[in-house]
Amino acid sequence: MTQHEGQSLSYFKQAVYGLRHWFRLFDMEEKAIQMPSIKKEEKLPVVLSKQECKELFKTPRWFKHRYLLAFAYSAGLRMNELRLLKISDVDLDRKQIHIRNGKGKKDRYVALSNYLSNSFKKYLLEIKPQNYLFEGQTPGQPMGERSIQYVINEALQKTNIKKQVSMHTLRHSYATHLLEDGINIQSIQKALGHSDMRTTMVYLHVAQIKPNLAHSPLDSLYNIQG
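The structure corresponding to this sequence follows.
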């Protein structure tokens, strides 16, 4: 039981932690080990709708900020993957982005959005980054995490979005929208750089996927519509 006489889960956790400390203080390690484990709460990620994403991306006054938010979402990038991305990591010919030293020190490739590739040269001409795609006030140095979070916080204030949103929300939205677009879960796992499929599976609980009705494979073999 995690609740008793109306007490909250937080109260239960504090009681367990307190008793464990008390038992160990008096060399009663066996009793401390026997205390119930505290399971981590499993919360579903916050996800923006496609319409909310479009509203967010058009809000910033500066072209650089609009491009940054759209780019983060377009490739499902983690904060450090976004800020440490170099201009040379974007391959316009192959329409790919090379993510270097992602989580677990692993490299991966993700698709470059056609929408963003069309304005990539314009971005370079107007913003003039020297090394990193998104640089801070010091030329040649990447933007800091606080600066990037400020960009999304400022944009959110000018929208009608009421959800608790961070940069990582764009990554969650990217994965969920890919599922809703019909991309298989294995491809999404690879794009996100997840080593464990169970981490990617959480998006199945969020995505609004229309079930495919059962049909005879003979009809699809001859392309017969009902």
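The longest helix spans residues 9-25.
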